[in-house]
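Quarterly update from the structural biology core.
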Amino acid sequence: WAVDTSAAAVAARAKELPSDLKRSLAFDEDDEGEENGANAYDHLGTWILDEAKAKGGISKVEDVDIYKKAKELGIETKHKTLTVLAQTIFDEDIVKQIPTRASMLQKMIGDSEKHQKAFLGGTERFVGNDHPKLISQVSPILMGYYQNDLLTEEVAKSWGQKASKKY
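Predicted structure, tokenized:
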């Protein structure tokens, strides 16, 4: 009557559960890869970039389609989704693009401090790693987030006080 409780056995049993049940349980599937090594966040990011390439620019990828894809992957309410979105739904014109993306982002961020910090972490990666020329635009970017209710003053202040090793 012994049950194998190794991490691999638990992961295998979790994969057998229906997807709607997995989402409602407290499994931390955020870090689990699927058969090909990619997880839902990788799929979302790759899908957004592929759509942008096919449509001729990230601004041509509709918010509704992005939200539907996140929902299809079961990650529309996860904080890590915001990290992916911050890195993929903007380009060099981020300051001008914030207002057009604000309604989708408001819906996904809500009032959650964790979601706001994840979004800031994604922005940090986007600017620091992918677009270092935008470093001079960090203040207007943060102001755009704040003015579009994507970021509270308290979260912005706490985020700016110490460096995060997470992002």
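The CA atoms of residues 95 and 137 lie 8 Å apart.
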